[in-house]
């Protein structure tokens, strides 16, 4: 018998995260393009980001037929948050001197690195966007997935850090509250011994 699910956060009703999800405003618009394989994942951080930001949209798919429209909302300039050749370090608006300019549409592919690259391959308009990347040295709190390399963050963590840089001194730390609760709940359900054996952290 399947457990009753919260229709908003998609967690079991007994572990609903909605009370912890903020509703934060941002000048930056966030467009999350989620690979379908991530939708049913217990740690669906892209959904938490979309729920926690009033100026965010989550789309699920491999090919987005209306991508040209999604990437050109009036009053924004699109940037792809993804490392790679030619990616510029993300900066505050005061650093770039672009205060009066259009705010960013931050386009964030969500999936494993392989699936995210597939999204770029299947949607050439994405690959053509100017890229921005985060400073090196970030440490993920995502203790339940093996990071593919140093500085690898979950989608929610990457968005939070990007917004805190772009819109300093505004804080977006509240976005991480349901994420932390989700991880703690998973570790509790797993049991400390199993967690230590599989993940090697206290």
TrEMBL record:
<protein>
    <recommendedName>
        <fullName>tRNA-uridine aminocarboxypropyltransferase</fullName>
        <ecNumber>2.5.1.25</ecNumber>
    </recommendedName>
</protein>
<keyword id="KW-0808">Transferase</keyword>
<keyword id="KW-0819">tRNA processing</keyword>
<dbReference type="InterPro" id="IPR005636">
    <property type="entry name" value="DTW"/>
</dbReference>
<keyword id="KW-0949">S-adenosyl-L-methionine</keyword>
<dbReference type="GO" id="GO:0016432">
    <property type="term" value="F:tRNA-uridine aminocarboxypropyltransferase activity"/>
</dbReference>
<feature type="domain" description="DTW">
    <location>
        <begin position="2"/>
        <end position="191"/>
    </location>
</feature>
<comment type="similarity">
    <text>Belongs to the TDD superfamily. DTWD2 family.</text>
</comment>
<dbReference type="Pfam" id="PF03942">
    <property type="entry name" value="DTW"/>
</dbReference>
<dbReference type="GO" id="GO:0008033">
    <property type="term" value="P:tRNA processing"/>
</dbReference>
<dbReference type="InterPro" id="IPR039262">
    <property type="entry name" value="DTWD2/TAPT"/>
</dbReference>
């Amino acid at each position: 018998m399947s457990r009753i699910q919260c229709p908003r956060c998609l967690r079991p009703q007994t572990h609903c995260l909605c009370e912890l999800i903020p509703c934060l405003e941002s000048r930056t618009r966030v467009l999350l393009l989620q690979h379908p394989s991530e939708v049913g994942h217990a740690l669906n951080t892209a959904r938490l980001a979309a729920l926690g930001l009033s100026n965010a949209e989550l789309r699920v798919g491999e090919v987005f037929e209306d991508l040209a429209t999604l990437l050109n909302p009036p009053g924004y300039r699109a940037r792809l948050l993804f490392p790679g050749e030619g990616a510029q370090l993300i900066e505050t608006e005061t650093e770039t001197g672009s205060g009066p300019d259009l705010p960013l549409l931050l386009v964030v592919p969500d999936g494993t690195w392989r699936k995210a690259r597939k999204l770029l391959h299947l949607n050439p308009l994405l690959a053509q966007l100017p890229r921005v990347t985060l400073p090196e040295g970030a440490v993920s709190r995502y203790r339940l997935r093996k990071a593919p390399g140093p500085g690898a963050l979950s989608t929610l963590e990457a968005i939070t850090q990007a917004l805190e840089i772009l819109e300093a001194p505004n804080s977006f730390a509240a976005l991480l509250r349901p994420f932390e609760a989700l991880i703690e709940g998973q570790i509790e359900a797993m049991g400390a011994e199993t967690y230590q054996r599989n993940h090697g952290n206290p």
